[in-house]
Amino acid sequence: MTINFTDDMLREAVIKADICELEALPADHEITHEFSKRFERRMKKLVRRGKTGNPAGGAVFLRRRAVALIAAIVILLATAMSVSAVRAAVFEFVTEVYEKFTHMFFEESPPSQESADEFIIRRPSFIPEGFELVDEKTAGPVLLVYEKGSDYISYSQQRVEDVSMDINTEGAELEELEFKGLPAKYYSNQGVQNLLWYDDEYLYMVSSTLDRDAVFRIAESVETAGADTSP
Amino acid sequence: MSKKRFLSAALGVLLLLTVSTPGALAMGETSAAPESEMSVKYTYINQASTSLSISAGGTATVYGFVQKTPAGKYIYLSSTLQRNSNGTWSDVTSWSASSTSSSASILETYQVSKGTYRVETYYYVSGDGGYESGTVYSKTVTY
To answer: Which of B20, B35, B42 to mutate to test binding with chain A, by most A CBs within 10 Å of its CB?
Structure first.
């Protein structure tokens, strides 16, 4: 026996089968199954993508841009606030320790090319008895050299931005201390005692073959211009 | 997911480095210990310094100073004003001084034209066992 089905008959049969299958499914209120939260999240995400037509998802895309922008701002602020040079123009005392000497200078940030302020000369008012002034320079950096036999005392004052100095610290201990409330360094090497200290404008240095106490006493006497410099 | 985690970790490390590194550098002094071919101790030289300043009118003030230790005998120093042209330093003028006392110094002025300058100061101190020498440079100044 041969049965001939037409296309219309088959289409109608499929529709009826679908309806029967759908009617066999339970109604929404009869379903007790709970989907996992992860599943729900993924479905919502899928629905959102479908609505926007953007594969990345509009809200997600915007959120990523916002996160990138915030990260950039954080990096910029972190960089700026952690470097003192950005906060203020300051001089940083830099020492480069080499095998035989230490090179010292002040790094200015931001750099300027000239100092507009007048150079205020400060010089020691105390020099031990018997020392004679053998070298005096005050037009620019201040340099005073006193000698007595084989002993000597030198005093120098330079603008911090001009300092470029090599000091012999090989085998010597560079002692960090506070002098007159200012940062200072003291070291003794090869029979010479040296004390240097600095403020916002100048670096001062006393070097002598005399002992530590004498060096500190001379440094303590450093006063403003016009002070008596005779021993 | 692992790609996102990697990117997050990389961003975190970058943030950490960005915050910590400049801060550490800005805390105070920096120090470096370059290699040296010689290991002879400095016994004759106590200190050497140099500086350059240029006034608004173009007057350059050149300063050089070297001080010996008690073991040093003879001091020589020369300060050379140099000008930078296309990355090359050339000598403009030079001064020298020598001494058998505790130190020697140079303080000179020189009228300069517009440009970028520095001072190269060479110092030399001799003693009973030989001599020691070195070179110190001033800051670069543009007028």
So the answer is: B42
Q: Mapping DSSP to helix (H, G, I), strand (E, B) and coil, where does residue A17 land?
A: helix
CA distance to partner chain A, nearest, from residue B83 (Å): 15
Residues 6+ apart with CB under 8 A from B102: A134, A145, A147, A152, A154, B67, B68
Which CATH code is given to the segment(s) A90-224? 3.30.200.100
CA distances in angstroms from A206 to A84, A109, A154, B99, listed in the order given: 30, 27, 6, 20
Q: Which residues of chain A have a CB within 8 Å of the CB of B110?
A: none
Count Cβ atoms below 10 Å from residue A149 Cβ, excluding itself.
Answer: 8
CA distance A56 to chain B (A): 14
Over range B15-44, report the average pLDDT: 45
Question: With the CA atoms of A117, A118, A119 and A120 taken in that order, what torsion angle do they form, in degrees rounded to the nearest 10?
Answer: -110
**pLDDT, tens digit, 9 for 90 and up, residues B116-130:** 999 999 999 999 999
SS3 B51: strand
pLDDT digits (tens, 9 = 90+) for B95-105: 999 999 999 99
For residue A9, give how far its alpha carbon lies from the nearest alpha carbon of chain B (Å): 51
**Cβ(A200)–Cβ(A194) below 8 Å:** no
Would B107 be classed as within a structural domain?
yes
For the four alpha carbons of A96, B132, A137 and A228, in that order, the dihedral sign comes to: positive
Task: List chain A residues with CB under 8 Å of B51.
Answer: 140-141, 158-159, 162-164
Regions in chain A scoring below 50 on pLDDT: 82-89, 113, 225-231
Quick one: how many helices (H) and strands (E) in chain A?
Answer: 5, 12
Q: Nearest by CB to A113, from B28, B29, B142: name it.
A: B142
**Mutate which: B4, B39, B51, B62, vs A, most A CBs within 10 A:** B51
Determine the pLDDT at residue B53: 92
Q: Where are the domains of chain A?
A: 36-82, 90-224
Cβ distance of B46 and A192 shorter than 8 Å: yes
CATH number at residue B68: 2.60.40.10
Do B108 and B95 contact (CB within 8 A), yes or no? Answer: yes
Please tell me which of the candidates A85, A162, A192 has its beta carbon nearest to residue B51: A162
- In this structure, the strands spanning A182-189 and A175-179 are antiparallel
